[in-house]
Amino acid sequence: MTGVSAFAIARLPRIAFGAGVRSEVGSRAAQYGRRALLVTGGASLRAGPFWAELEDAFAAAGVHVETVQIADEPSPDQIDAAVRAYRGAEIEVVVAIGGGSALDAGKAIAGLLRPGNSVLEHLEGVGPERPYRGPAVPFVALPTTAGTGSEATKNAVLSQRGEHGYKKSFRDEALVAREALVDPDFLRTCPRPVLAANGMDALTQLLESFVSTRSNPFCAALALDGLQQAREALLPLYEDPNNPEARAGMAYASLLSGICLAQTGLGSVHGLASPLGAFFPIPHGMACGTLVAKATEVNIRALQAREPDNPALEAYATVGRLFAGDQRLSAEAARGALLDRLRQWREDLHLQPLSAWGVTGADHPRIVANSRGSSMKTNPIVLEDEEIAAILND
Predict the structure, then answer these.
(1) In the chain, where does DSSP find H-type helix?
(2) What's the half-sphere exposure (Cβ side, CA atoms, 13 Å) at 118?
(3) What is the spatial distance between Cα 234 and Cα 246, in angstroms, rounded to a whole number?
(4) pLDDT of 267-302, one tens digit each?
(5) How many angstroms separate the Cα of 277 from the Cα of each of 61, 165, 181, 209, 302?
(6) Model-level pTM greater than 0.90?
(7) How far apart are CA 189 and CA 45, in angstroms?
């Protein structure tokens, strides 16, 4: 019998998963009060088939709703504006329904409605990084995409785009949603490019969590289950969003990716995705899906050269055997199978190279210089600048 190493798991939401759980939104919100601030994305939710049903759920529970729309990745200015607009509205619960941007915005707004200060005071690597004291307004999250896992994390990722842009987190355990309602039916209306990019984000989060320097037995088990689901569901969902099994598989994989990353941290792909998303108009999931094969190749090569006994090498082989469906593969062959599958998914999902978003070789030094944030710190090996730059080569 082998021993189990010590680990600790931070707070998670109450999770309800399954087709139709969106109908509980009104009753779950009403537990915390009758005045809700609803944070959504742009116009797609209102224009889609679920909006009237959601409105009815709030009305049936006697919950009065004010609405904030976040059309793109949320910026600090947008968060501060929403806090100023609704701080005096006696909001008792914040509900976010949408992709990762809407959920992150809702998380940040819920955290600041009562204190009333600017989010810049708490944003990592940007302002004075003052400790968050709270209190936070109760937060309820309903993801409509399968990728970010934001419904299970404590960090709200905010972006300032441009030459001096950044993509940083407001992070505190008090920001974790009280309730996460994960309904795979929402994926039925997702455009295929969104399904592809978000699916590769979830897969990358699971893989990076599994090989993270902070990986633990609890999260490793969840990550492997999520990777199995992604292997079976990612392409079928991309090919047919009306496939209920594929919708459930990817919604579940995304949820597990959020649980895992919140406990273990991520790696070089997400380290690079932050400056890429800040300096260029590249969607986060697209950056992840484009980079994950090359980043995995660079990690494996660096580990073999400098840390051949690092357990991440066997972890990569474990995922390769899972993806190949062959437990008899040698470690070397299994890692090769993993790289082959990641490259094939990039091709099958029609993910565009970085050059399509305006990234050139001249940009690489600036991207590399801004890549060593919190995600890079849990990469299985410390990469040299030249190795990080190699990941960016299309």
Answers:
(1) 25-30, 44-47, 51-60, 76-86, 100-112, 192-211, 217-239, 244-264, 268-279, 284-306, 311-324, 331-348, 364-369, 385-391
(2) 10
(3) 7
(4) 999 999 999 999 999 999 999 999 999 999 999 999
(5) 39, 9, 28, 21, 26
(6) yes
(7) 9
